[in-house]
């Protein structure tokens, strides 16, 4: 019986995260310790994601560990996805109202 789960879903999530972070493959590889060629293979689904890949990425960006592994989020536990994080990056900080004299 074949699983309906996409066996390369984690590969897609890694690529999505790298693009959301606006990092080149070289930059992402340097931060995670995953080789650039291996990262390319992961993103092009030529290689499956192993636990150590998730661990290496989670060491740099711990808030994405659960999402990378499962595709799910636990915001109350600080486990988010780029879809949750990205809008926050575009939010402007409100200026305090001017003081009245």
UniProtKB/TrEMBL annotation:
<dbReference type="InterPro" id="IPR010982">
    <property type="entry name" value="Lambda_DNA-bd_dom_sf"/>
</dbReference>
<dbReference type="InterPro" id="IPR001387">
    <property type="entry name" value="Cro/C1-type_HTH"/>
</dbReference>
<dbReference type="GO" id="GO:0003677">
    <property type="term" value="F:DNA binding"/>
</dbReference>
<protein>
    <recommendedName>
        <fullName>HTH cro/C1-type domain-containing protein</fullName>
    </recommendedName>
</protein>
<feature type="region of interest" description="Disordered">
    <location>
        <begin position="78"/>
        <end position="101"/>
    </location>
</feature>
<feature type="domain" description="HTH cro/C1-type">
    <location>
        <begin position="14"/>
        <end position="48"/>
    </location>
</feature>
<dbReference type="Pfam" id="PF01381">
    <property type="entry name" value="HTH_3"/>
</dbReference>
<feature type="compositionally biased region" description="Basic and acidic residues">
    <location>
        <begin position="85"/>
        <end position="101"/>
    </location>
</feature>
């Amino acid at each position: 019986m074949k699983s309906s789960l996409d066996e390369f879903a984690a590969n897609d999530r890694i690529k999505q995260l790298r693009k959301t972070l606006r990092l080149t493959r070289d930059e992402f590889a340097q931060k995670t310790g995953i080789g650039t060629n291996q990262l390319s293979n992961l993103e092009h689904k030529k290689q499956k994601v192993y636990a150590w890949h998730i661990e290496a990425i989670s060491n740099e960006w711990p808030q994405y560990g659960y999402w990378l592994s499962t595709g799910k989020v636990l915001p109350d536990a600080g486990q988010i996805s780029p879809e949750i994080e990205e809008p926050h990056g575009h939010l402007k900080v409100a200026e305090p109202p001017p003081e009245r004299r």
